[in-house]
Write a structure and sequence with these properties.
The protein is built from eleven helices and 16 strands. The chain is elongated. InterPro entries: MoCofactor_Util/Proc, XdhC_CoxI, XdhC_Rossmann_dom.
């Protein structure tokens, strides 16, 4: 449910009663993996999705029934050779879902988790899966909060501590935690959102902020020119900073989850910013410009003391080759490359590639990057 936390937080603030169906297990091929969620409120409104439409109709009914009953339940959808009209994934896989009504004693815990994620905080949330006795509760852990723990799975304090310890050790941040007595809990961890620092308050920056925000990035736009670096020009940025880009980078502790995109064309600003970014830990560093701009920039970066290993991290011309022309198309090309680097994608068309449709989130070396020549838009 944390995948749609911002929208569900709004429902909580509006006082809506609703149920959330979350994918907790997948066998074979499925459009969405564990963690995908769909919510249905008391009036029948829907948020999210779990299968691209294959089972949503039947799941809508399940959510409505769980909300009426007030108790969690599970649902399983698989192809049935004896019933061709049964709801099932068209790609042949099997999916198991946990359906949790956000009502009663568990509502406060779940609402706090949703609000924390919507506000950019880190949380670990566990929900008891039906079976193994009473249960039915929810357990929240917020690292760094004054009152870090909240709620209970309903199986006692000892089980809560064990479940939390096992949840925090899960690879990938989500999965089913197995507990004594045949009990199970679904766990989701959400770290603070990755950051995207955009250097240059230009129209491409506004388009990139628009593209990156739905991908879960907290966007900062930085420019030394106060007339351009305004919140009004970048409504989707979490922060607009009027300062030299190198000083802006010096004041931020980036991690390998973060990205830096330099969209300026002035060596006074982009070279010092790229020196900071390429010497830092950011997982993606890209710079806009044509091939000619790129070659000139490399000369300046070498003169500033960067070595070949540091320069090899620079993705420039920025973005995948989509033959982009407009700011929106260019932002799509940049965002696509950021996702490919983050997820370990190749950036090549899937048609005829034989590559898996859904990566496992493990970062691998990319194939030689496809480059976007921005001569027509970036000079």
């Amino acid at each position: 449910m944390l995948d749609i936390a911002t929208e569900l937080d709004a429902w909580c603030r509006q006082g809506r009663a609703f149920a959330v169906a979350t994918v907790v297990a997948v066998e074979g091929s499925a459009p969405r993996g564990p963690g995908a969620a769909l919510a249905v409120d008391a009036e029948g409104a829907v948020l999210g999705g779990v299968s691209g439409g294959c089972v949503e109709g039947a799941l809508w009914e399940e959510c409505r029934e769980a909300l009426r009953a007030g108790t969690p339940r599970t649902a399983r959808y698989a192809a049935d050779p004896d019933d061709p009209f049964a709801p099932a994934l068209t790609c042949g896989g099997t999916v198991e879902l946990l359906i949790t009504p956000v009502v009663g004693p568990r509502r406060a815990t779940l609402a706090e988790a949703l609000a924390a994620v919507a506000g950019g905080g880190a949380v670990t949330l566990l929900r008891a899966l039906p079976g193994g006795g009473a249960g039915g509760g929810a357990l929240l852990w917020r690292p760094g909060a004054p009152d870090a723990g909240r709620g209970t799975l309903g199986w006692g304090a000892g089980i809560d501590r064990l479940a939390l310890a096992r949840a925090r050790a899960l690879p990938g941040g989500r999965g089913t935690v197995r507990l004594p007595g045949g009990r199970r809990a679904w766990a989701e961890h959400r770290a603070a959102p990755p950051r995207l620092l955009i250097v240059g308050a230009v129209d491409f920056a506004a388009a990139l902020a628009h593209a990156a925000t739905p991908l879960g990035y907290r966007v900062t736009v930085c420019d030394a020119r106060p007339v351009f670096a305004t919140a009004e020009r970048f409504p989707e940025a979490a922060e607009v900073v009027n300062d030299r880009p190198d000083r802006c980078l010096d004041g931020r502790r980036l991690t390998g989850r973060d990205a830096v995109c330099v969209l300026t064309h002035d060596p006074r600003w982009d070279v010092p910013a790229l020196v900071r970014a390429l010497r830092g830990p950011a997982g993606y560093v890209g710079a806009m410009g044509s091939w000619r701009t790129h070659e000139d920039r490399l000369r300046r970066l070498r003169a500033a003391g960067l070595g070949e290993g540091e320069l090899a991290r620079l993705r420039s011309p920025i973005g995948l080759d989509l033959a982009a022309r407009t700011p929106a198309e260019t932002a799509l090309a940049i965002a696509a490359e950021i996702v490919a680097v983050r997820r370990g994608g190749s950036g090549v068309p899937l048609t005829g590639s034989g590559r898996p449709l859904h990566g496992d989130g493990t970062r691998t070396s990319l194939a030689p990057p496809l480059r976007l020549d921005l001569d027509a838009v970036a000079q």
